[in-house]
Amino acid sequence: MLAYGQPADSIDECVKIGESTAIESMKRFCRAILKVFENEYLRSPNANDVARLLEIGEKRGFPEMLGSSNCMHWVWKNCPTAWSVQYRWRSGTPTIILEAVAYYDLWIWHAHFGLSGSNNDINVLEASHLFSNLAEGIALLLIMSFR
Predict the structure, then answer these.
(1) Are 97 and 115 spatial neighbours (Cβ–Cβ below 8 Å)?
(2) Same structural domain, 18 and 61
(3) What percent of the chain clears pLDDT 90, i.e. is strictly above it?
(4) Lower Cβ count inside 10 Å, N or C end of the chain?
(5) Which of the 8 DSSP states describes residue 70?
(6) What's the confidence (pLDDT) of residue 101?
(7) Which helix (H) or strand (E) holds 110?
(8) Do 76 and 131 have their domain in common?
């Protein structure tokens, strides 16, 4: 269901389980992923993380940089025909945009997924909660030391 975007009631034909069992299995899978990865990877940076990110950025020649934000277009193979124009990227293929901030160790500490492929990077950043949180005064925690 997650990998191919198939509805739960179609799973019974290839896996031979019922719709309710497929839905329950997906819920359990998602809960397990959260349990294993939430505390380390599926969270915003805390004060120690911010200090570490700033220190590493400084050592690599990027002072005051927490990470690099980028947008990626994922092809939406099963995009409904009625939505295909809205989600069409410049290649003519329907896409969904993933905006993420990652660091060199592959820790993705911010992700915003689901905007239509017809948006450009500026539109995505405008819609992202990363910058709206800053505009609303919700910022990352930072511990500073003065020497």
Answers:
(1) yes
(2) no
(3) 9
(4) C
(5) E
(6) 86
(7) strand 108-116
(8) yes
